[in-house]
Amino acid sequence: MTDKHVFSLYTALHQKFGAELQSNLQCKATLVVLSHALEDEVIENQLSPVIFAAFQDIRYYKGEHSRYDQLRATSRAVQIFGRSLSAGTAWEDDWFVVVNEPRFKAVLACREIESETTQPLRESQRPFLGIWSYNPEVVDFACQVLAEHSEAKVARAVEEVIAAPSQSVEQLHYVDRLSNRLLREMEQSNLKALEQISNNTQLLSELEQQTTILENARLQTEYERDSLHVELRRLYDELTHSQTLMTQAVIEKARMTNNRSASVMLLEQLRQHLETPTSTTDHDIKALDLLARLKTVLQIG
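Request: output the structure for the sequence above.
Response:
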């Protein structure tokens, strides 16, 4: 029996069949499509297979719970593996879906690998190495290996389905149906991808237009800012000049007020001096001095 703590169906199949099985690198998004295609083939055609499926963690199974309720409605047995889903067995790296029915046998078995890129990956980009086979011998062997990790009633269902004669014509029919289903899925994915590319191209064009508008707005803003700066500088110079003129006017007014007071005082002194009857040389000199001072105050040449 394979060690339950390190069990890997992918590894077990390669150890058994070697180069007969070709491994392909696939991302999680592709595995979801392949797994759903297998499951939908069973549901839509009301097949009665034994089904084994591995979910790395219970949180992944919760999103598929209703789908597996539909599978249980017609299947002989459904065994789900995964952390917190099955006792004892660790399935941290495996992803598989095995469908075994006399009319239709298929296996998808994958093992997660480390990404070669250092960039963080989205959930849908997680890389797996996987094998896909319709070979009855491969499918039967996978079921026998998995039965060793299952309940007794599941193991009995595996024995029954393996003992039943394979119906090769029906097998080809369902393989053909499944291939067409996958082609439709691929075409839909391609159409969605093309639509997304078209939308992204449109968004890029709109972004470039917005960038051009923003750049023009930036240039216009810079021009208006420079023009405003020039205008503010002109207004500042005019204001400074006006303040200088106002200051000069205030000073001139104060000077004229002082001169007026001085001239009034000198005129009064001259009048009083001239009305004095005394006429001497000193008297005349005093009058001339007052007159000269008055002329100076009045700025008379």
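The radius of gyration is 52 Å.
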